[in-house]
Amino acid sequence: QVQLAESGGGLVQAGGSLRLSCAASGVIFSPNTMGWYRQPPGKLRELVAIVSRDGSTNYRDSVKGRFTISGDNTKATVYLQMNSLKPEDTAVYYCYLVHIGSEYWGQGTQVTVSS
Fold first, then answer.
1. Which of 3, 20, 76, 105 has a beta carbon 3.0–4.6 Å from 80's, enabling a disulfide?
2. SS (H, E, C) the chain
3. How far apart are CA 25 and CA 92, in angstroms?
């Protein structure tokens, strides 16, 4: 069974940085896609950034130039470096993975950015 373990969330002041990490266990083949979603308070879950097996990336417009996704699909690990954080980045961040046609989610890690 695929399980995702996230770490790295916390409280930071505006302008600060955080790095999220996610490691998957139970993976048989390299995931097609790994990435991060987030759910701000009172809002729906939204895409932050994803990286595909071929190395291509896709970012939410509001985080472009501030966040960087990286990872190793062969090891099923993914990271999200978040710089110049803003209060509107406050959310629960979820690791996401597609493996053999199924989607998997981590339990989420809280990121809070104070103004």
1. 20
2. CCEEEEECCEEEECCCCEEEEEEEECCCCCCCEEEEEEECCCCCCEEEEEEECCCCEEECHHHCCCEEEEEECCCCEEEEEECCCCHHHCEEEEEEEEECCEEEECCCEEEEEEC
3. 21
- Token look-up 């097609």 returns 32
- Least Cα distance to 76 among 42, 39, 29 occurs for 29
Handedness of CA 46, 21, 50, 95 (dihedral sign): negative
**Residue 100 pLDDT grade (very low, low, confident, very high; cuts 50, 70, 90):** confident
